[in-house]
Design brief:
Elements lengths: L1 H15 L9 E3 L6 E3 L16 H10 L7 H12 L12 H23 L3 E2 L9 E5 L7 H11 L4 E5 L3 E6 L2 E6 L11 H12 L7 H7 L14 H6 L1 H11 L6 H8 L16 H8 L25 E5 L4 H6 L6 H13 L7 E4 L6 E4 L2 E4 L4 H18 L3 E5 L1 H8 L5 H4 L3 E3 L5 E5 L3 H5 L3 H21 L7
Helix pairs in contact: 2-4, 3-4, 13-18, 14-15
């Protein structure tokens, strides 16, 4: 920003002139304008011989956005000391370094809050037809210039304005510009806010309510600009009674066929290829009494894959969840419902695909009357690969979609760096293409709304890639 550039020029002049920190008084015309010194510094055109660590420059770019007027003096003091103490930044017990680190943390947190809590409202369309939106936000620090490019990338297909008490960021026809502060604009109600409030209320979990933690992540100062905030007092007030109702309801009753399956003595499964099932129906029958790993002991039932036995696309998730364990079907819980919706939006017909999991039993740990998902370990994934192999050989899909790290491990033998691999195509040992993606449950756990929307859009785009490879699974 202009402030950082001005401070940097003045600081270099101070170093070149050998002026110690206690002989410089830093001031600004205003807190958001270019910095100027009260008197002209000598040596402005001289080159400073001392090299500055990159870590300090990175700190400067954040700390200069802090609202504390003493930030300029602090930065120059640390810069001055770095000439003779090259390892100064590594000493976080030093008072100056600790203060600078605290500024960096506060500014970074404020940038995160802006990305999470800016709420746009739609106005009249532009003359060229582009949609127009506006938002009001009250940051703690001078972060608008630093954070606005995020919104320019995220909402490049629309015109928008973010007004703050310090600065206005305006994005018109693909051009980002900044203007002076303005009064809070009158923002018309947005119909999508009703949908967002419904979603917010539906994901609010009263059993995990921690008011102090919630307010730490969503401070009350932001509530007046958040449409969902009006629901929070009532949700908190009713949390205790809702938890009591949940406790009284307890677990859903497992199907009778599942209880019968659990009470019968499980049979050991064949391990030789010659004893492999000859059809999906036979595989399903064998899997009902699977004992390949200890997970069968606490699960309600085996949750096998489902779909056409000649499906050209095979989706592989991690493991069944609580709802799937009770229903005996894959991807029917909250993550499964989101998965099915995004499939439809991407134009892919679920009933033309085969959907399964790397692990066929629900791994969980009890927490009161609830069963919390627990990630299967490498041994459990390996034990269940036999079933995945049978499904793959019986179906012979032309494309496999690995949903998440566990699925990637089961399908390709490598489960790390899934975020870097997502959206790319890899191959199994026999050459079957594998599209790498994330598990839809991760979209439900994302606390940052803007980041969740971005990841959801990326997931939808990844699903669309399926149609380029296997157009037969397109929705009719």
């Amino acid at each position: 920003s202009d402030t950082y550039a001005a401070w940097r020029a003045a600081a270099r002049a101070g170093l070149a002139g050998g002026i110690p920190p206690d002989q410089i008084f830093w001031t600004t015309a205003n807190d958001n304008s270019a910095l100027f010194a009260e008197t002209e510094m000598p040596g402005l055109e001289q080159k400073v011989s001392a090299a500055v660590p990159q870590a300090f420059l990175d700190l400067c770019e954040l700390a200069i956005c802090h609202r504390d007027p003493g930030r300029f003096a602090l930065l120059y003091t640390v810069l001055w000391r770095l000439r003779g103490q090259r390892a100064l930044l590594a000493d976080e017990s030093d008072a100056d370094v600790a203060a600078l680190m605290a500024m960096r943390k506060s500014v970074s947190r404020d940038c995160h809050k802006m990305k999470a809590f800016v709420r746009f409202r739609e106005g009249d369309a532009a003359p060229d037809g582009r949609r127009r939106f506006a938002a009001w936000f009250e940051p703690d620090h001078f972060i608008v210039e630093r954070t606005a490019p995020f919104f320019a990338r995220r909402f490049a297909d629309m015109d928008w304005l973010i007004a703050t008490p310090d600065l206005v960021a305006r994005f018109d026809s693909g051009v980002l510009a900044f203007e002076g502060a303005m009064a809070r604009p009158a923002l018309a109600p947005d119909q999508t806010e009703d949908l967002w409030r419904t979603y917010f209320a539906s994901i609010f979990n009263p059993a995990r309510l921690k008011v102090k933690a919630m307010q730490a992540e969503m401070p009350k100062k932001y509530w007046r600009n958040l449409p969902e905030a009006a629901l929070i007092p009532d949700l908190i007030a009713r949390a205790e009674s809702r938890v009591e109702m949940m406790e009284k309801a307890g677990f859903a009753t497992p199907p009778r066929r599942a209880e019968k399956s659990r009470s019968s003595k499980p049979a050991e499964l064949p391990l030789l290829d010659s004893e492999s099932p000859r059809s999906l129906r036979e595989a399903l029958a064998q899997a009902a009494s699977c004992t390949r790993c200890p997970l069968y002991r606490n699960a309600t039932q085996t949750v096998f894959g489902e779909g056409p036995d000649d499906a050209p696309v095979m989706f592989v998730g991690e493991q069944p969840g609580d709802k799937e364990d009770l229903a005996g079907r894959p991807f029917v819980g909250p993550a499964g419902q989101l998965f099915e919706r995004l499939l439809a939006e991407a134009g892919v017909a679920r009933d033309k695909c085969y959907v399964t999991n790397a692990v066929k039993h629900f791994k969980h740990e009890p927490r009161g009357k609830f069963r919390l998902h627990k990630r299967p370990d490498a041994g459990e994934v390996q034990a269940c690969r036999w079933w995945l192999k049978q499904e793959k050989e019986l179906i012979r899909p032309r494309l496999i979609v690995a949903l998440g790290a566990t699925a990637a491990q089961a399908v390709t033998g490598k489960g790390d760096q899934i975020m870097r691999r997502r959206g790319s195509f890899e191959k199994t040992a026999d050459g079957t293409p594998v599209l790498m993606s994330i598990h839809p449950s991760s979209l439900l756990r994302q606390p940052d709304r803007a980041e969740a929307e971005r990841s959801m859009s990326q997931f939808r785009d990844e699903l669309r890639q399926i149609l380029a490879v296997v157009p037969e699974v397109a929705r009719s």
